[in-house]
Amino acid sequence: MRRGTKRKTTVNDKAPKETTQPIEENEKNEPSQSAVVSKDDQRKSEENHIELNEPAREELSEKVDEEPNKKAAKGRAKKAKTLKPEVEEEYFPDKRNLEDLWKQVFPVGTEWDQLDMVYQYNWNFSNLEDAFEEGGLLYNQKVYLFGCTEPQLVSFQGQGKVTMIPVVVAVVSPFPPSDKIGIKSVQRETEEILPMKQMKMDWVPFIPLENRASQVERLKSQIFILSCTQRRAGLKQLKLDRVKKFEYCLPYFYQPLQEDELEQSTVVQILFPIDPKPVFCEFDWELDELEEFTDKLIEEEELSTDQKDAFKDFVKEKVREAKKANREAREARRKALEEMSTEVKAAFENMKFYKFYPVSTPDTPDVSGVKAPFINRYYGKAHKIL
Asked: Which end of the chain has the smaller Cβ count within 10 Å, N or C?
């Protein structure tokens, strides 16, 4: 073959080159007939695709809108599950109008460290409450109440135990029975009669439960209680003698229409201060002879011989003081009667004392066997025990 001339190729020469490529490669490089479409056909197919997908979009938006509703419904369902099942309502009886009356009355003369013993039981004074109802002893009357305690050996749940029994004394009177407090005990040589307010005590109106939302000034109370504003927390700041005075307090009452027991008494309390042990005894100046009385104490080794004369002088002085006190009491009573109006005299004549003990219940000791009419040395005995 000559240089520079071109070789003519025939159809047969080209065929083998076209067939030398693998079929798979041709399929990759050459698009299929179904994929080769015109631009108009492609636009139509896209429009059809959009139209066909419109319902799907609407469904998607509806699903999106339904999501919060489903969550809210789910939340509500969860809240409904957390609700507690309905149970029968427990019945609590209504509080009685005078239910706490006995607790509001201060237990005069009770030792501070024994107050907790008084309230360890839920004592029931429904008898006191009933007395203020129509037909009761205290209905529609002006009443003054004070409290006290009586330590007694009583049985509870099969066991005997010394118990501080609360007692409420009701005084039916148109005016306060007294504005004074007596302070006396076997440990104290002398008796003191002090104004109530000096011991932080006073008569205050009792407000029933149904009226406690009202102003006290607008209420015409018929029930007055002896109250004490001294708080136990403040006792630490007081001197011991002041603290003991509260424990020796007794509600004081003076009945001018009858001779007082103290005016008739011929007995004096003797507390002779000697070391190592003081002599405590009672001397009756009408029945006892001082010389014999002193010798007996020496014989019993309560008193030494060298202290005999000093003891006799001490007793004589106490007898003189007691006789003087009796004379002054009789004179004061006579003067009071002369100055007393007819209304006041009638009030003293009609004054009544009622002594209330707790009612027996399964939860409290039975005190029915230890009830006594005696109130204290000033009030004497109650007209009735309840």
From this structure: N
The residues, ordered by sequence, that sit 6+ positions from 59 with a Cβ below 8 Å of its Cβ are: none
Per-residue pLDDT tens over the stretch 243-301 = 778 888 888 888 777 765 555 678 888 888 887 778 888 888 888 888 888 888 888 88
131 near 170, Cβ under 8 Å? yes
Query: 249 forms bridges with which residues in the sheet?
Result: 183
- How far apart CA 366 and CA 357 sit, in angstroms, is 10
- Backbone φ and ψ for 223, nearest 5 degrees, come out as -120, 125
Yes or no: say if 135 and 108 are a contact pair by the CB < 8 Å rule.
no
Q: What does the alpha-carbon distance between residue 368 and residue 386 come to, in Å, rounded to a whole number? A: 10
Q: Rounded to the nearest 5°, which phi and psi values hold at 258?
A: -135, 150
| C-alpha distances in Å from residue 302, one per residue of 268, 273, 277, 282, 317 | 18, 12, 8, 14, 20
The tokens describing 86, both together, are 């309905």
Q: With contact defined as beta carbons under 8 Å apart, do 196 and 205 qualify?
A: no
Q: How many CB atoms lie within 10 A of CB 309?
A: 10
Helix axes 308-339, 290-299, angle to 10 degrees: 130
Instruction: Report CA dihedral (44, 49, 51, 54) to the nearest 10 degrees.
Output: -160
What is the reported pTM? 0.60
Q: Which residues contact 330 (CB under 8 A, 6 or more apart)?
A: 259, 263
**Cross-strand pairs, 39:** none
Q: Which residues contact 50 (CB under 8 A, 6 or more apart)?
A: none
DSSP letter for 114, please: G
Check residue 306 and report its DSSP letter: G
Query: What are the DSSP calls for 193-252, one per residue?
Result: EEEGGGGTEEEEE---GGGTTS-GGG----EEEEEE---GGGGGGS-HHHHHHHHTEEE-
What's the pLDDT tens digit per position in 56-96? 455 545 554 555 555 545 555 555 555 555 666 655 555 66
**Which residues partner with 284 through β-bridges?**
267
